[in-house]
Amino acid sequence: ALISLRQLLDHAAEHGYGMPAFNANNMEQVHAVMQAADEVDAPVIIQASAGARKYAGEPFLRHLIIAAAEQYPHIPIVLHQDHGGEPAVCLSSIQSGFTSVMMDGSLMPDMKTPSTYEYNVEVTRQVTEMAHWLGVSVEGELGCLGSLETGMAGEEDGSGAEGQLSHDQLLTDPDEAADFVKKTGVDALAIAIGTSHGAYKFTRPPTGDILAIQRIKEIHARVPNTHLVMHGSSSVPQDWLKIINEHGGDMGETYGVPVEEIQEGIKHGVRKVNIDTDLRMASTGAIRRFLTENPKEFDPRKFLKVSTAAMKDICKARYEAFGCAGMA
Ligand code: G3H
Ligand code: 13P
Ligand code: ZN
């Protein structure tokens, strides 16, 4: 059954676990997330980005989730819209049946330029007011995701976005978080602690100077009733990186957010952990390996099957590591 993000994360807070929120764009990803959840009895958050809606088309995405709910009636599912760039995007997702939306007002609608605090409060407050009338949950974002190593807002390909961000912009301020939550009424708050989107997060395994896990405690202390969200939380599995590069791929050396650091975050109020890149890497690695090892094969179901299995293994590992196994 579809439930709201608030319902699920309240349960997570009560029982002290964190929820991976997996991005999905197609049937194989939805299969992977659901099969893993079914095996370990975990609830599910599936999120769709603007890119996913463009890729699959809104009706196809919606019906994939309806299909998931029908095939797995015992698993609670949150259908969440990832990174809404403006209130209109959130409203259209609400109309199409999403049970949760993210109003990302940390950036202007171009999704590149950092916004002002006042703008962020205003758009997030508007969306929250409307969403709550309909029982839909809202995630806001305060602070800009980006690398404390380079000062750059992360782009998926590892290049920087709109110029340099200051150290302050890259870390959510706890006092500002308290004010933001009070003014907007959001259910969940995405915070900036040095992670960035995509595969190229860190040039070395992250330590305290480039990944500010400590900051989570300070923010949580100020907004104890708002569920914290970590974006850019892929761990960038080194085994899949190796498999990709051994089978014709060419990805550079790179490191993600270690699962142990996420577990530390969950101890201090993180309830939603966004993961996209890890599934992309598992899928690509599995397909590359399969096609090199089976050059005569041309039935796409064969390589899509190994892709689904590889993604499922990652989902299962995260459910177990974040404590949500057995919580469905
Ligand atoms: O927020 C970033 C997610 O990884 C979604 O990426 O916009 O390419 O679908 P996307
Ligand atoms: P990753 O690129 O680390 O998987 O982050 C995904 C994300 O934050 C989606 O909103
Ligand atoms: Zn994100």
TrEMBL record:
It comes from the Bacteria. GO terms for biological process: glycolytic process. Zn(2+) 2 binds at D104, E141. One of its GO terms (molecular function) is zinc ion binding. Zn(2+) 1 binds at H83, H197, H231. Its EC number is 4.1.2.13. Gene3D superfamilies: Aldolase class I (3.20.20.70). It is an enzyme of class 4 (lyase). Signal peptide: none annotated. The keyword Plastid does not apply. InterPro entries: Aldolase_TIM, Class_II_FBP_aldolase, FBA_II, Fruct_bisP_Calv. This is Fructose-1,6-bisphosphate aldolase. It comes from Ectothiorhodospira magna.
